[in-house]
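My main concern about presentation is that the manuscript never shows what a single data entry looks like. In essence, backbone conformation is discretised, so a fold becomes a row of integers matching the chain in length. An entry of this sort, consisting of the sequence and the corresponding backbone structure tokens, reads as follows:
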Amino acid sequence: MNRDEKLQYQEEIESYFQNKKVYDLFEKLLKELVIYKPQHPIDYLIDRLKKKDTKRFFITSGSGTERKEVALAVANELGYKHISMGDLIQKELLKKLETSKKIQKSTSNYALVEDDIAIELFKNEAIKYKDESYIVEGFPRSRVNKSN
């Protein structure tokens, strides 16, 4: 193979990898190897390639918007789970526990639910869908929520 043929071949291969998004996949897998440093990297890569990628979307906006309707429509369209912070809060209120009393006090005063409660409610729900893609609406609502 002469120099021009090698160059053309290289360009074809690069174009193929780019079109098939192989570079992106390799980069992502390499980053995971560096971050997680698995004991058996080949087994890790094989398992990782078999797993479906999960996506997380957070839809936030001010009160009075159609945030929930948008989140539900997008979740249905993409086949993702939908997590509604408002629904989680309502379910928690029905439990009549100490947390419920704190939530009731906040909502009675037209205030946001305490950060630690909101974060805990979200974490408990999100863990159920750890291997699935989901859309969250209504969370985070404060700077503390965002940083956790």
About this structure: The chain has two domains: 3-50, 56-147. The chain has a mean pLDDT of 87.
